[in-house]
């Protein structure tokens, strides 16, 4: 994406990009993904994720804005062919508007990562979220977030991948759990999304398990809240 001049966006911009994505899909498909989505085990999935904005930028602490220098990149990922087809066609024709800023889409590159092994190494392009909704003693609900060093992090990530794989490959299938281990240090990132504070983690991870589950992670995202801009990953090789 390119602009003739530097442009700025709030540091917590996930909802801006999410709105852009839905706006560049056909109205019927966008409404389906936003209001219904793909359902399995009473859980709803949009089956797409997107990265943080990638490109040279500065952070202005006084205004809590990011100022990008002309160009930026965005990675979108989905196992749904219609999603990829629609959004790429519209972006090339119309460009992209983020907030009040219009950006030309100068190029689109399609990458297909075919997972053929039971072990892959990945890096996060947007931070990974693992959470559970629990009840307090007074009956009120609250959200607990887990970090990669906790067992519940791995359990939640694995259960999430099994559900995605069932949607992609068949709901009658069964899968063994996936193991996920961090490579080196992971970094916590606090994101404000529509007045909700979300705890997420960036880093590199080793995923081991059924290749279909690993493919689901690459295509649909790792962890929760993918369509809100979390869990977009890319395979890496050492």
Notes on the structure:
It is a single chain. The protein is an alpha+beta fold and 238 residues long. The protein has five helices and 15 strands. The chain has a four-stranded antiparallel β-sheet. Strands 1-6-5 form a three-stranded antiparallel β-sheet, with no helix packed on it. Strands 2-3 form a two-stranded antiparallel ribbon. The longest helix is centred in the last third of the chain and has 19 residues, at 151-169. The radius of gyration is 18 Å and the shape is globular.
Strand-helix topology:
Elements: E1 7-10, H1 14-23, H2 27-35, E2 38-40, E3 43-45, E4 49-50, E5 57-60, E6 65-68, E7 76-77, H3 81-94, E8 96-98, E9 101-103, E10 119-124, E11 131-135, E12 141-145, H4 151-169, E13 179-193, E14 196-208, H5 211-220, E15 233-236
Antiparallel strand pairs: 1-6, 2-3, 4-7, 5-6, 8-9, 10-14, 10-15, 11-12, 13-14
Quick gist of this model?
The chain is an alpha+beta fold and 238 residues long. It is built from five helices and 15 strands.
Note the main attributes of this structure.
238 residues, alpha+beta, four-stranded antiparallel sheet, three-stranded antiparallel sheet, 5 helices
